[in-house]
Automatic annotation (TrEMBL):
Its EC number is 3.1.3.25. Its cofactor is Mg(2+). Mg(2+) binds at L86, D87. One of its GO terms (biological process) is signal transduction. It comes from Buchnera aphidicola subsp. Schlechtendalia chinensis. Belongs to the inositol monophosphatase superfamily. GO terms for molecular function: inositol monophosphate 1-phosphatase activity; metal ion binding. This is Inositol-1-monophosphatase.
Length: 263
């Protein structure tokens, strides 16, 4: 096992254990919403601290970026860890059992290692660039579904204004009319891991940014999936939206939505 991956797994499991301990406590607590937000922020801070300590003991010179310190000054030539101690905050706050810890390690501006941990199901999704993706040690491959009517498609919407706000519902209606089954789970990195293992066939991501999808995107690619912007190019971070899924559906869906994005 890659030595950095080993440390990343240890950190992700520690972060996941902290979430589980506090998730169980939440079930019997019915605080006001403001108090609950504060409590969750505190849980995230504690989790990030423990995870950061584990990483820094082995790699004190690596840069660690979390949801609370995204404005660090660093060079892309350095080794950078992207940590999301709780992806699926809204699910967690509502006791909806679908959230995860995610870690992406960026080396020379390329995502080389990825860990996504679902502590409730004890599912550990990992990938190393060029070595494939795994779930609990077993190789993952994306689905080979090639008919829209047989597909299960995820959608991730942004809380912020999107470049494609005017088109989102028109696009969704196209696929609903073809009897496509659509899900919105509230946890982007688990969506991406589910693409990698074939539980989801495709994903419309209307809030793509490097921090949020770095971990999951490596797993998608290492399992045979593709990532594209809505024009079939690679500008998904610039445009803020991405298409993610198996190659067969990618071709079909790009043709279906082309009319919305041709200038």
């Amino acid at each position: 096992m890659h030595p950095i991956l080993n440390i990343a797994i240890r950190a992700a499991r520690k972060g996941g254990n902290i979430l589980i301990q506090n998730y169980d406590k939440q079930k019997v607590n019915h605080e006001k919403q403001i108090e609950k937000r504060y409590a969750i922020s505190k849980i995230i801070k504690i989790s990030e601290t423990y995870m950061t300590d584990i990483i820094q003991k082995s790699y004190p010179k690596h840069i660690i970026i979390t949801t609370r310190n995204t404005n660090l000054d660093f060079k892309m030539s350095e080794i950078i860890w992207f940590i999301n101690a709780l992806d699926g905050i809204d699910n967690f706050s509502k006791n909806l059992p679908h959230f995860c810890v995610s870690i992406a390690i960026i080396i020379r501006n390329i995502t080389e290692i990825s860990v996504i941990y679902d502590p409730l199901k004890n599912e550990l999704f990992t990938s190393v660039k060029g070595q494939g993706a795994q779930l609990n040690g077993y190789r993952m491959r994306c689905s080979n579904v090639n008919f829209l009517s047989d597909s299960l498609i995820g959608i991730t919407l942004s809380h912020k204004k999107s470049n494609f706000d005017n088109n989102i519902f028109e696009i969704v209606n196209i696929f609903l009319s073809e009897r496509v089954k659509i899900r919105s789970t509230g946890c982007i990195n688990l969506d991406l891991s589910y693409i990698a293992i074939g539980r989801l066939d495709f994903l419309f991501n209307f809030c793509a940014n490097p921090f949020s999808i770095a971990a999951g995107s490596l797993q998608v690619r290492e399992s045979g999936g593709l990532i594209s912007d809505f024009n079939g190019g690679n500008n998904y971070f610039t445009l803020g939206s991405a298409l993610i899924g198996n190659p067969k559906l990618m071709r079909i869906i790009l043709v279906k939505i082309r009319k919305f994005f041709n200038n």
